[in-house]
Write a structure and sequence with these properties.
352 residues, mainly beta, four-stranded antiparallel β-sheet
């Protein structure tokens, strides 16, 4: 790269290349933030977006949009679009409601639809959504408030589940960078159909700074880590070099549908077969990109609902129409039955 990057964001583009933005060139003191966005080319080497230089904070929430641009969703209030072709260009987007949602989180919960939640100092319990998909007649996307969490959270993690809901774990209600005294143990889940949150089971230990939450193929969520050496006042913090596995409510609603076979590689716009003895009971076929999470933001996960038809021995499923909906890379394929119970996921790949 052009220089070092401490705490950058990497975002896979529709052509399989990778946009890398921000990060500090000197280890963590923020004195030399890297303003030059660069694109890693599939054949190797870097392409500079020299006309799109921008000083950004650590781990900006960069999400690929349906029009091929990359949407900067936060944590700053002013959002922007980045054109990654040629030498790059920024376009202003709509402003969200909170001045700075630092150490909140952002999720692509459906193609082109973004949820931002929590963050700030003092932490907020608010959440907002935006739909980046084109409309007819054309209208400019705008942020809209959705339901509030039961708890304000900073240093939280947000994880898309196989049924399309979004799980939030960890964080603190207290002011300050990483105040463990306000650690939130209860989990919450957001339902995009209603915009409401439901409080669920509590963790045994707080998960704050440097914690992670990752969807596993069996539909559970790994919640792990957390802690830091000292805060700005030189106060020692507890480290949590351990993990818990969270089982969402859908795992207690009956037997799971089974995938007996599925292709390892999918083709954009093409149908593919999934063998299952439970075809008559399947309500949804979902695709979730494998996660890559740190510092309250998963740089990879995204959710897509796939059309399907039941057949004699399984399902005929339509793959995503193009790479703007689902960029190339590895995904988890789930079958979800009428009770909302998911199968164990199969890892499939969309080729570059």
């Amino acid at each position: 790269m052009n220089m070092g990057r401490w705490y950058p964001t990497a975002c896979t583009l529709e052509n399989g290349e990778v946009l890398v933005v921000s990060g500090s060139g000197t280890l963590g003191d923020g004195s030399a933030m890297n303003a030059l966005p660069q694109v890693w080319k599939k054949g190797g080497g870097w392409r500079d977006l020299k006309d799109a230089k921008m000083i950004m904070g650590y781990y900006p929430w960069m999400l690929s949009a349906p029009d091929g641009k990359v949407f900067w969703a936060g944590p700053q209030r002013q959002t922007r679009y980045l054109e990654t072709s040629g030498t790059g260009k920024w376009y202003d987007g709509p402003a969200s409601s909170i001045w700075l949602r630092d150490y909140g989180s952002a999720v692509l919960y459906e193609p082109g639809k973004v949820l931002i939640v929590g963050g700030g100092d003092p932490p907020t319990k608010t959440a907002e959504t935006i739909d980046l998909n084109p409309t007819h007649p054309p209208t400019k996307p705008q942020w809209h408030e959705t339901g509030k969490m039961a708890f304000a959270r900073r240093q939280l993690n947000a994880t898309v589940l196989p049924d399309g809901k979004v799980l939030v774990t960890g964080g603190t209600e207290a002011s300050g960078f990483n105040n463990e005294t306000g650690g939130v143990l209860a989990t919450e889940v957001w339902d995009p159909a209603t915009g409401q949150w439901t409080t669920l089971a509590a963790m045994k230990v707080p998960r704050l700074y440097h914690s992670t939450a990752l969807l596993l193929p069996d539909g559970t969520v790994l919640s792990a880590g957390g802690g830091m050496a000292k805060d700005e006042n030189e106060r020692p913090y507890t480290h949590y070099p351990n993990a818990q596995i969270y089982s969402p409510p859908y795992l207690f609603k009956g037997p799971r549908p089974v995938i007996t076979s599925a292709p390892e590689i999918l083709s954009y716009g093409a149908s593919f077969g999934v063998k299952t003895p439970d075809a008559a009971k399947i309500q949804k076929v979902t695709l979730i990109r494998l996660g890559s999470v740190t510092h309250a933001f998963d740089q990879s996960q995204r959710f897509a609902l796939l059309p399907f038809l039941a057949t004699a021995d399984g399902l005929t499923v339509n793959a995503p129409a193009d790479s703007k909906v689902c960029p190339p890379g590895p995904y988890l394929l789930f079958l979800v039955d009428q009770a909302g119970v998911p199968s164990v996921g199969r890892i499939v790949s969309l080729p570059g």
